[in-house]
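Support case: user asked for a sample of complex input and structure output to validate their parser. Sending the pair below.
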Amino acid sequence: MTEFQHKIHDIVIKIPKGSVVTYKEVAQLAGRPKAYRAVGNILNKNYNPVIPCHRVIRSNGEIGGYNKGSDLKRKKLLTEGIICGKII
DNA sequence: CGTATGACGTGCA
DNA sequence: GTGCACGCCATAC
């Protein structure tokens, strides 16, 4: 567990229900605005259910990816009230 | 330590 | 709007 990972987890956990954040936003909040790649990498390896990684989407509005499948991510977002027919 | 990879982003044709 | 290339950071090998 590195400090960066801890920060990312903490930030993602603090994402309110019904809201979404972009990878760049998370990286910026973590103090590394240009580490959005690392953010995705960490979330990809992170299988911790306490982390709502499904609330992290791409800056262009795309769903992005998900550990358990992008389809489940889209479904979760729909359940939380995020408007996403398919992609944007 | 150097290379390769990845849930990305931006710029340019 | 689409496609390609470059950059940037952390992790794995």
